[in-house]
Amino acid sequence: APHALLAMGKVDPLHPDLAVDPLGILRPPSKLTHQLPL
User: Fold this and answer.
1) What is the SS3 assignment for 22?
2) pTM recorded for the entire structure
3) pLDDT tens digit string along 8-34?
4) Origin, by domain of life (predicted)?
């Protein structure tokens, strides 16, 4: 998923890496966005 974050500026909320989130740290998905000009 980190490569997707860099490539698209966000992570797909349905990405398999986000399915395993026992601590609830990956929600809301809006926390996984960035505004870097790539």
Assistant:
1) coil
2) 0.17
3) 666 666 666 655 655 655 555 555 566
4) Eukaryota
